[in-house]
Amino acid sequence: MYDMQKMILTNTENIPGKEYEVLGPVSGSIVQSKHIGKDLMAGFKTIVGGEIKGYTEMLMEARQEALSRMSTEAEKLGADAVVSIRYATSSIMEGASEVLAYGTAVKFK
Fold first, then answer.
1. pTM metric for this prediction
2. CA proximity to 70, closest of 98, 14, 32, 29
3. What is the pLDDT of residue 94?
4. Which of 41, 51, 50, 34 is nearest to 97 (CA)?
């Protein structure tokens, strides 16, 4: 479980010891890219192999922002938690990716 500003976020279907009502699906997404300098360095890295740290950082930041946006949507519904959280990633264009976080908003009884 992950607690983000009093909102419980978990990838499990249940929260031990809690009973809740389902409010509905919630999601948050972001499309993010790195600047051309990072793209050039990533291109060189593909020649020699290894981790492309600029892209790793970009996707970590994007996941965090998508999670935050999903939490905000859940808060607007009056949720106490989001269960069954998942991520999806897609390429929008060269050098830009969308990260989507989604789950089910719930209210404790």
1. 0.80
2. 29
3. 72
4. 34
